[in-house]
Design a protein that fits this description.
By secondary structure, the chain is of the alpha+beta class. It has helices spanning about 10-15, 40-45, 50-60, and strands spanning about 15, 20-25, 45-50. It has a single domain, classed as Factor Xa Inhibitor (Irregular). The protein contains three helices and three strands. The protein is elongated, with a radius of gyration of 15 Å. The two termini are about 20 Å apart.
């Protein structure tokens, strides 16, 4: 039986915390800042923790060894 491989795209986009939650970088800050409000830009800073159901799917299908 071959080994399960981690999806390369998921390896770059997600990280699993010590408690098993999935962390991701927030979308919407690459370009077009002039049309966003300052509060939007502030709130999109840093990373966010994924909801449990979505995180479960990411861990199951994309990061099986994570």
């Amino acid at each position: 039986m071959p080994k399960m491989k981690t999806k390369s795209s998921a390896k770059k986009r997600f990280k699993i915390t010590g408690t098993g939650k999935v962390v991701y970088a927030q979308a919407g800050k690459r370009h077009g800042m002039i049309k966003r409000t300052n509060s939007q830009i502030r709130n999109l800073r840093g990373t966010a923790v994924m909801f449990d159901t979505d995180g479960y799917n990411v861990k199951k299908y994309f990061l099986p060894n994570g």
